[in-house]
Amino acid sequence: MHALVVIDVQNDFCPGGALAVDRGDEIVQPINALMAEVDAVVLTQDWHPAGHSSFASSHQGKTPFELIEMPYGPQVLWPDHCIQGSPGANFHPDLEVDRADMIIRKGFRAAIDSYSAFFENDHQTPTGLEGYLRTRGIDRLTMVGLATDFCVNFSAVDAAKLGFQVTVLQDLCRAIDLEGSLQTALDGMRQAGVTLA
Ligand SMILES: [Zn+2]
């Protein structure tokens, strides 16, 4: 069984959003088209409480895109984004959300971020997605979405480590690319056994 996992195609990650990924909106229609070709469609939704610890505004004297050390490891500080219930947290209006079998929210705990659809940034706290996929007999994942070098990357690497057969469609992802983070992510995914198509 084969699932399409659509990572964080939300207003705040698209042009005009709080943490816009360049040309992030270009991938929406081709993602919709892919939904017809798989056994299951899963959407992830970044979903932070106001004042989340991944926001630079929550740390005195810090600015967005600085790196800090959190109890669970290094964390990039972001502009405030995807606040629960805000328009920015909504999916892109053209994404065919009604076709999703499952929507999994992540990053809802104030003290920890969650790039991956499978584990929070401590790499230990599960989101529950693994259990959902396994109980549905899904072993093959195609991943697309935003952003290639953060949430897609972390999700794909975790999925591969968990034993899923993972393909990332690079044309249907867009990157933030902070200081070479895209190349690092591509190398890391390849090393983890993710197929980059
Ligand atoms: Zn976030």
UniProtKB/TrEMBL annotation:
Domain of life per record: Bacteria
Gene Ontology terms: biological process: pyridine nucleotide biosynthetic process
Listed name of the protein: Nicotinamidase
Gene3D superfamilies attached to this UniProt entry: Isochorismatase-like
Family as reported in the entry's similarity comment: Belongs to the isochorismatase family.
Isochorismatase-like domain: residues covered: 3-196
GO molecular function, one term: nicotinamidase activity
Keywords from the UniProt entry: Hydrolase, Metal-binding, Pyridine nucleotide biosynthesis
CDD domains noted in UniProt: nicotinamidase
UniProt-listed Enzyme Commission number(s): 3.5.1.19
Organism expressing this protein natively: Antarctobacter heliothermus
Class of enzymatic activity (EC top level): hydrolase
This protein's pathway: Cofactor biosynthesis; nicotinate biosynthesis; nicotinate from nicotinamide: step 1/1
